[in-house]
Amino acid sequence: MVLTQEEIDGCREAFLAFDKDRSGTIDVWELRQVLEAMGQKPTEEELFQMISEVDDNMSGSIDFGEFLKVIENQKERAENFDDENDMIDAFVACGGKADKEGHVKRETLVRIIKQDFGLTIDIEELINKIDQDGSGEIEFEEFKVLLSS
């Protein structure tokens, strides 16, 4: 995930504003303040995880380059979260449950793809490939594979 120049400039401003002692690094508590100023509300566990993912020299604090990695990771997680939510919404619309339980019936999926959307793909063949347990019903993980095909 690449940040735009505008995002990098905003990150630099935030980093410098919270590097109170002008050490060129921020610790976990300063990171919390920066992220909160940027509209995020990380837990203590998430903060330590963020730092451990990028703190190459294991100092317990991060420099600006490492901070940019934190922001890139956060941006990627947010995009993945949106993708996952979209998958859940589609699963629910087809008959599954929001907690990723339940299933989508083969017939329902075939009808939606062929009749509702008018697609000419061989949905039956795709279902046969992804229906790992041969149940004729598509569980959430199988549904994700189908949408990614």
Sum up the overall morphology in one term. elongated
Number of strands: 4
Structural class: mainly alpha
**Proportion in helices:** 55-70%
Main β-sheet description: 2 strands, antiparallel
CATH architecture of the largest domain: Orthogonal Bundle
Number of domains: 2
By CATH reckoning, the class of the largest domain would read Mainly Alpha
Distance between the termini: 22 Å
Low-confidence stretches: none
Mean of the pLDDT scores?
Answer: 82
Protein name: Calmodulin
GO molecular function: calcium ion binding
Keywords: Calcium, Repeat
Organism: Triparma retinervis
List keywords for this structure.
two-stranded antiparallel sheet, 149 residues, Recoverin, domain 1, 4 strands, two-stranded antiparallel ribbon, 62% helix, mainly alpha, 7 helices
Account of the protein in words:
This protein folds into two domains: 5-79, Orthogonal Bundle (Recoverin, domain 1); 94-148, Recoverin, domain 1 (Orthogonal Bundle), CATH 1.10.238. It is built from seven helices and four strands; from the N terminus they run H-E-H-H-E-H-E-H-H-E-H. The chain has helices at 5-18, 28-37, 44-54, 64-93, 106-116, 123-130, 140-148; strands spanning 25-27, 61-63, 104-105, 137-138. With 149 residues, the protein is mainly α. Helix 1 (5-18) packs across helix 2 (28-37), helix 1 packs across helix 4 (64-93) and helix 3 packs across helix 4 (64-93). Strands 1-2 form a two-stranded antiparallel ribbon. It has a two-stranded antiparallel ribbon with strand order 3-4. Residues 6-41, 42-77, 118-149 form the EF-hand domain.
